[in-house]
Design brief:
Elements (H helix, E strand, L loop, with lengths): L14 E6 L5 H9 L9 E8 L5 H8 L3 E4 L6 H14 L4 E4 L8 H6 L4 E5 L11 H8 L3 E8 L9 E8 L6 H24 L6
Parallel strand pairs: 1-2, 1-4, 2-3, 4-5
Antiparallel strand pairs: 5-6, 6-7
Bound molecules: 5-O-phosphono-beta-D-ribofuranosylamine.
Length: 205
């Protein structure tokens, strides 16, 4: 595994990003727009897309963007997945890993190895409504405001230090889909902003 002890940011060079995604990959698209694989953004470039699902649209987006796009099967063996993922991250000299709709829980060992270099985005104002279906939880709780959070990943589920939050209103006639769509627009702004803050060393775990 990578050396979790290194104090990583800021780097004196362009950072190499990996995005781990299980599904549609709209946050991947926003990261690719902000940090193109071609390298024209001096701060960072997306260099690897990794998915646990071979059919994930996110992988196709990576291919279309000219990024290395790798499927690693999760199966029933998380340790094997994590060994393979870690090897790919090191092979591609990745500096910062962005989970973006990655639907698997990573082990405490993997998280420790990438401490400070592993981010996630979640569709709620953490610490409210962690885990699955953040938007559904917000509607069930009857809150008038929700949003999204980008946070460092620690050994808990959606418990690491928050880097950026963006707030949206919850409307009386919202359903899960309408609220998710409103939050998603803000996710696409929040993730690149959080990556910039971390890479500049302005927010640390
Ligand atoms: C987003 O709502 C994200 O917050 C959550 O999963 C969804 C992924 O969407 N973790 P996409 O695959 O990035 O479009």
């Amino acid at each position: 595994m990578a050396d979790g002890a290194a104090a990583p940011f800021p780097l004196a060079r362009q950072a190499r990003l990996a995005v781990l995604a299980s599904g549609r990959g709209s946050n991947l698209a926003s990261l690719l727009a902000a940090f193109p694989a071609s390298g024209e953004e001096p701060l960072a470039a997306v260099c690897l897309v990794l998915s646990d699902r071979a059919q994930a649209p996110a992988l196709a987006r990576g291919v279309a963007a000219g990024v290395a796009a790798e499927h690693v099967a999760f199966g029933h063996d998380r340790a094997a997945f994590e060994r393979a993922a870690d090897a790919l991250l090191r092979e591609h000299a990745i500096d910062l890993v962005c989970l973006a709709g990655f639907m698997r829980i990573l082990s405490a060992g993997f998280v420790a190895a990438w401490a400070g270099r592993l981010l996630n985005i979640h569709p709620s104002l953490l610490p409210a409504f962690p885990g699955l279906h953040g938007q559904r939880q917000a509607l069930a709780a009857g809150v008038h405001e929700s949003g999204c959070s980008v946070h460092f990943v620690d050994a808990g589920v959606d418990t690491g230090r928050v880097i950026v939050q963006r707030r949206v209103p919850v409307r009386d006639d919202d359903d899960e889909e309408s609220l998710a769509a409103r939050i998603l627009e803000h996710e696409h702004l929040a993730y690149p902003e959080a990556v910039r803050l971390v890479l500049r060393g302005e927010v640390t775990p």
